[in-house]
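User: Hello! I'm new to structural biology and keep hearing that structure can be predicted from sequence alone. Could you demonstrate with DHA2 family efflux MFS transporter permease subunit? Please show me the input and the output so I can see what each looks like.

Assistant: Of course. The first part below is the input, the amino acid sequence of DHA2 family efflux MFS transporter permease subunit. The second part is the output, the predicted structure written as tokens.
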Amino acid sequence: MADTREMPPISQRIGFVAAILGMFMAILDIQIVASSLNEIQAGVSATPDEISWIQTAYLIAELIMIPLSGMLTRWLSTRLTFVISCLSFTLASIGCAMAQTIDQLIFLRAIQGFVGGAMIPIAYALGFRLFPTRVMGAVQAVIGMIATTAPSIGPTLGGYITQHLSWHWLFLMNIIPGIIASAGVWFFMRIDEPDFSLFRKIDFRGLLYLALFLGPLEYVLEEGPGDDWFNSNTITSMALLSFCSAVLFFRRTLTIDFPIVDLRVFKDRNFAIGTGFGFIIGLALYGLVYLMPLFLGVVRQFNSLQIGEVMFVTGAAMFCTAPIAGRLSDKLDGRYILTVGLLLVGSGSIMNACLSAEAGYDQFFWPQIVRGMGLLMCIITAARIAMGTMPVSQVNNGAGLFNVMRNLGGAVGLAAIDTILDLRNDYHWNQIIPAISPTRDVVTQQIFQIEQQVTGAASDPRAAAIGQIAQRVGTQAQVLAYNDIFLWLGILYLCAVPLMLFMRKPDH
């Protein structure tokens, strides 16, 4: 059926831009603290184990809120839900900047993530509810560009702000955009009315099960690699709690008339496969944003500004690709564009599977171009295929589920990357070590040369020489482990292409 809707009035377009601004803030704040953890740790007198929780708490709380957004918009209306979410997010940001202890900061970051989580799916849903199909490509290009650019520039922007001002401004910078976004939606976005009678139908037991399912799951994925997974009693307990809560949540959701999250939308084959692609996209969107700075920081010892200069290429590629991909998605079958996007992301990742310990800007330039183009095409078309044919009444609910799957993909990707890096690093170390046996002439000569260089500067020249060689071996083992991850991520994306055969051609 052809979409005969007209373009929304200018007032609603202003409201939509305001909603996009709110979504940008919520996504940006996931990663903006990543490069400033040392300064924040010193500012609130935290231990290394405690400081990681300012990211973990935000992610856990946000993941719980995202699927609830559909229910809240039905109860409070889209406008009121967004404004409450945005203003609360802004106030929580001020609280984070004023925090004096790590406990206060973790608590306020959890509030910030929870209340801000609703802005992301609402912005997605507004794109489908307001605009006709003929311009949907351009709309989704803008949303996709925001969704991909925000996590990419977060660490760089955070490092720059902390270096020139202080870590407090990582949170204070949200005040003016938060007020603008709230005012824009409040005054210009009235598309539905609240139904306060639904409060009596809210399934609070289902809400509890959902929180106990997603919260511990995110905790396990975040903390598992560092705690050696199920060798930790805490990780094991949280995993069991998540599993049991998941069983109770799915059972209740599928058997009551007014569930907290309506899972019946997964009966739509396109939505089910589209959200699956959202999960896979999350692996690359968050995994590659995490993997590249990790390589450049650990192996090359780059600072945050140098890392930002390298990673800027991905954002630039997405920015330039967005208008072209948007136009193409209006004219071509979305399945074709998504296929090309998957092939580009997979190929771009494999292009980085032969890095050396000296790899830098030049070695990452073209792979980032290829990946950036492909990733934007994937995000635009996956969301459009998944939600573009849904009834208006289900769009908010579908947007929440789509974003949950994407964030879960990112969480699973980060946990898998940390775990596999450790395993492959140990593997390559054990493979290289036999080759540097002191019985080999070339090794003996290398040790002798280093001894001559450090004589007088080290109390034990031979021990210093052996230490330098061990450091080189460790670096090479790390590089090989990173190459394995890039290769396997690329293969994963290429293997996802055949799923396209099971999708129906999207109509209007």
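User: So the tokens describe the shape?

Assistant: Right, they're a compact way of writing down the 3D structure. Reading them back into a model, for example: The chain has four domains: 1-202, 205-259, 261-427+485-508, 428-481.
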